[in-house]
Amino acid sequence: MKTLIMYYSKSGNTETVAKTLSNELSTDLIKIEDNKKRDGLFSMSRSVKDALREAKTKISPEKLDLDDYDLIYIGTPVWAGKPTPAIITAIDTYDFKGKNVILFATMKKSGDEKTIAKMKEKIQVQGAKVINSFAIKVPNQNGNGIKDYTIGIIKNLSLK
Ligand SMILES: Cc1cc2nc3c(=O)[nH]c(=O)nc-3n(C[C@H](O)[C@H](O)[C@H](O)COP(=O)(O)O)c2cc1C
Question: 96 lies in which domain range?
């Protein structure tokens, strides 16, 4: 059984979780890039607006062959209580039919439940089965804090 960790990350928190999962569970790893400019003066409000509308965006890779994988983790930061546009687009674009999926999110404070619920709703429409999910609150942890927390989750949820 082959596993893939797929994630979007703007400032690195979700990336730390994804890389820790990939290292600990010996999986493949892919970062989804959002081709829309997300830096700069108005980027925060634009990103919030896009997330609230569940707007699609242009992502890289545009296409992704998931045939080799039975289990796929999908990770996103919480934006305005929603999944990011990059992950919304990935879920709608790639073929997840028949896959087992584990969803995860990182956030500062709240919105994780709504975010996971939205991802679950969308991925189930694609014919995938959500077998687990988790969220990591990152108020101001450094990379090591996030890593340790992720290792704790791997143990608690018996992901190995
Ligand atoms: C546009 C935007 C919207 C956000 N909205 C929320 C939110 O609704 N709730 C929350 O707890 N954190 C929110 N955050 C904080 C991020 O979810 C949090 O810092 C996350 O860990 C960032 O992940 P990343 O470093 O992988 O990009 C938001 C951040 C951004 C940039």
Answer: 3-156
